[in-house]
Design goal:
heterodimer; A: 231 residues; mainly alpha; Methane Monooxygenase Hydroxylase, Chain G, domain 1; 6 helices; B: 265 residues; alpha/beta; Rossmann fold; 11 helices; 37% helix
Chain lengths: 231, 265
């Protein structure tokens, strides 16, 4: 297919919107990494930075939605152009949610630094956040390169994140049963783990949007669900 | 306005009204239509889209043998309406055109009164027994053409005195006065303003209760708005034919995609 529209302003609008998505994706990626770092190094300043940075992410989502609405109204996009606009709006929504979860992690970190440290939990949680961050990076690459295979790969990898979450859940439960003083920090850590698991789900939703964008159809086979909460 | 009521009709089993097989059209040495096969459904709107010179109008004109009037034009292959070959020697093209009505790009009312514009066809085809019969046909056609209220007090004023949009609706009313089964429309809104266009589109949507409508349009948005099926023509080939919603969200052929997204003219 010819890449360029006859009306070149159409190309500029579409490219502009996608550039904003990539910028937003970059900010969210950084937020995940920094939130996890702040947690593991008990760095209150970094946590505060993550919380402040969320405003920019929210602003970008609004901007993207506004640009998409304009593009729909003014250019009546069809076929692949329409799919770009639809998927971009959903991707922006998912990115915004991930940003909120990172912000929430940072908030809990600000509380946790004033509590007793739970040995061993930080490492696993950081690894989990790192995996989600990598998945997000890959799904953004898949989006910009229109690579449905890479998006499918990300979709598969979410199961690993779910397993990490289940393992952490059992770990926190053990800590809390052993020593009631750990209950408050472990509850915070558990919420952080759950938030990270939810981030993975949003990355998965983005991967589905990329597949829809490239193929025109949502992936049919639902990802294998293996959430076992029987600790 | 009738969107919700119309939803039900979309799921009804459809039947083929017009069936074209291996249709080739030549203008002298030019091969204008290359081996087109298509089944057009009864009681639905089918849109033909494609860049200028792609053959969509030429193919449309095959359906009521309008191309017979062009000396250098040669049509091969089969076109059947309700299973009957319209190019059979025994078919009278004039009778065929009463059954397959046509509306053109520019409104072309006869230089006669509004009444006579409508009454002409029914009269020559002997569809009315007497004056009151004819009055009834005229009123019914003008009502179905969604123009009755605007002209009922001046039926004997010249049709050419109406506005462009009114003239076009008059021409549609004229085309349906002979009770055709198929209505061919060649760019019916290209000379109309947006309001008149919307009125004609609303009319097309109502007409599909009774007729098979085939519309050639340069406006892809119009094709998307009015049709249930869309056919994309390119360089004389029928590139893709399918449900309008599928063509406009996820076409299978790259050429269709390029055209509807505005990448090739």
């Amino acid at each position: 297919m010819n890449d360029q529209h006859i009306v070149s302003a159409f190309d500029r609008d579409l490219e502009g919107i996608q550039a904003h998505v990539m910028k937003m994706g970059g900010l969210v990626e950084a937020a995940i990494g920094e939130a996890a770092n702040a947690m593991s190094t008990r760095d209150e300043d970094l946590a505060a930075q993550v919380r402040a940075a969320d405003k920019a992410i929210d602003g970008l989502e609004e901007l993207i939605n506004e640009r998409c609405a304009n593009l729909i109204a003014l250019r009546a996009p069809a076929a692949v152009d329409l799919r770009v606009v639809l998927s971009v709006m959903k991707i922006a929504g998912n990115l915004e949610r991930i940003g909120d979860y990172a912000k929430n992690m940072a908030k809990r970190t600000s509380v946790l630094v004033h509590m007793e440290q739970v040995e061993g939990a930080n490492g696993s949680l950081k690894r989990m956040a790192h995996e989600v961050q990598l998945m997000l990076k890959d799904v953004l690459d898949a989006f910009i390169q229109r690579d449905a295979d890479l998006a499918r790969d990300v979709l598969e990898r979410d199961e690993g994140v779910d397993q990490m979450y289940n393992a952490l859940f059992r770990e926190f439960l053990t800590f809390m049963m052993e020593d009631p003083r750990y209950i408050t920090p472990c509850m915070h850590l558990h919420f952080m783990a759950k938030n990270t698991e939810r981030m993975g789900d949003h990355v998965t939703a983005i991967a589905e949007q990329v597949i829809y964008l490239v193929t025109g159809a949502m992936p049919e086979d639902a990802r294998p669900k293996a959430t076992r909460l029987d600790a | 306005m009738y969107d919700t009521a119309k939803l039900g009709t979309d799921v009804i089993q459809t039947t083929t009204k017009i069936s074209a097989r291996n249709v080739q059209v030549y203008y002298g040495d030019t091969h204008a239509i290359k081996n087109v096969n298509v089944d057009i459904e009864a009681k639905s709107v089918t849109a033909f889209i494609g860049p200028s010179g792609c053959g969509k109008s030429t193919f449309l004109r095959c359906i009521n043998r309008m191309n017979d009037t062009i000396d250098v034009c040669r049509v091969e292959g089969d076109i059947n309406i309700d299973g009957e070959d319209i190019y059979d020697k025994r078919v009278d093209p004039v009778q065929l055109r009463a059954k397959v009505g046509m509306v053109f790009q520019k409104p072309n009312p006869f230089p006669k009164s509004i009444y006579d514009n409508i009454a002409y066809g029914p009269r020559i085809h002997g569809l009315a027994k007497n004056k009151s019969d004819l009055d009834e046909i005229v009123e019914k056609s003008l009502r179905r053409g969604a123009i009755w209220n605007e002209v009922k007090d001046r039926l004997h004023a010249p049709g050419t005195g109406l506005s462009g949009g009114q003239q076009q609706r008059l021409c549609i009313a004229r085309a349906i006065a002979t009770e055709p089964e198929v209505l061919l429309m060649d760019e019916p809104c290209s000379a109309l303003d947006p309001i008149a266009t919307a009125q004609v589109e609303e009319l097309i949507d109502e007409l599909r209760d009774q007729f098979s409508v085939v519309i050639v349009t340069h406006s892809m948005q119009q094709a998307a708005r009015v049709s249930q099926k869309t056919a994309f023509f390119h360089l004389g080939n029928l590139v893709e034919y399918g449900d309008t919603s599928q063509i406009f969200t996820n076409p299978t052929d790259e050429r269709t995609e390029s055209y509807i997204t505005g990448r090739i003219g």
